[in-house]
Specification:
The protein is mostly helical. 52% of the residues are buried. Helices cover 71% and strands 0% of the residues. It has helices at 12-23, 27-30, 32-39, 43-67, 73-81, 84-116, 122-139, 141-171, 192-202, 208-211, 225-250, 264-308, 314-317, 328-338, 346-350, 353-375, 382-404, 408-428, 443-447. The chain has a single domain (12-435), classed as Up-down Bundle (Amino acid/polyamine transporter I). The chain starts with 11 loop residues before the first helix and ends with a helix.
Length: 450
Amino acid sequence: MGNTSLKRSLGLWAIVGLGLGYMTPTIVFDTFGIVSEGTNGVVPLAYLTALAVMLFTAISYGKMVQVFPSAGSAYTYTRETMNPHLGFIVGWAALLDYILLPMVNALIIRIYMVSLFPEVPAWIWVVSYVAVVTALNVWSMGKTSNLNSILVIFEIVLIAAFIVLAFVKLSQGMGQGTIFTTEPLFHANVQLGHVLTGATVVCFSFIGFDAVTMYAEEAIDQKTMPKAIMLTVLIGGAIFFIAGYFAQSLFPNVSNFKVTDDTLPEIGLYVGGTLFQLIFLAGAFAATVASGLASHASVSRLLYVMGRNGVLPRKLFGYVHPKFRTPAFNVILVGVVSLLAIAPSLELISSVINFGALIAFTFVNLSVIAHFVFRKKRYKTGKDVFTYLIMPIIGAGSTGILWYNLHADALIGGIVWIVIGFIYLLIQTKFFRTKMADLAFDEADRTSSL
């Protein structure tokens, strides 16, 4: 590898854009029917609950990314503050949702394109999409970021157009018949258990905020990372909440929808007619491509850090292309995995993604306590106790509650994945008789650029 390192080419808003692209703001309309049915019509309250949980975790990410300004996220933080073996298991758990999300995006593209062109074989769309996204990620992180930003802006403009149309429809008497109402947030049939279950579904939408920590070594100024994390959470959460509020106001229940598993096409049709429906679908397509670019880039960098550490074979996973300065092998590998989207169903793949994400979120909060309280002894003032102990405990506890409310399929699939990782860990350490590879990368890895 020599001194070849990732290129520092990303500014604050480029990183925020990648996070929002990963989060896919239009997903609020895709999952609206499922969440509305599950929460008895309080979709925005589910998003508000998830946002509150994510904010505590985002603060913890902001603290840890300053202590360990390298790619790797929850894996690196747990490894360095607690135990290398535990760090590997957390990284392995996080790898589950990271590596599946690019495949989910390929799957959604397949569904969209097959619905428009049913006579064309589904595999053609998957292969074509994966080839383009993989090539862009190998070529340049900067190019990936630029295209992602354009796509994110496009989908935000469309969401704004939806809100304007919603204003008109509500003023004309559709749905609740009023722009300002508390019904989407609270009514007599609201139950805490249902809201928490809905929050576990919508927390999938927030996964992008933690993914931006993967770009720490490509940030022009690493000091912007905590701000980028918080902006991603707050902007994404605001979009989800506002869009969810207007959608719930227009559709108090799911009785108007023929298909509740993906309500975006019907929402577009009922709010703006056939033309807006087509434009709305185009926005959803753009959002999926943006998420695909960002998620593909993120998991490639997690694999890169695990390879650079020697946890995975270093020659392959720790390789950086000498010309493009990207982890080319990992990018191509993720592309190959994404090709599996030719066959399975969206429900099967997406059901286990939150398992790894919530484990990672929990351990990032615990890493703050391990580092600042136990290692740095930051518990002698009330401010330190609140900042480094109470807040991360709330963050870990609240993510734990969401984890407890996961669907049974997600728990089973996640546990199987963890068992596989644990077996690999036993082999790597010869049943814990040897240590995992240490974090070892030169200062040049932190600062070098073209």
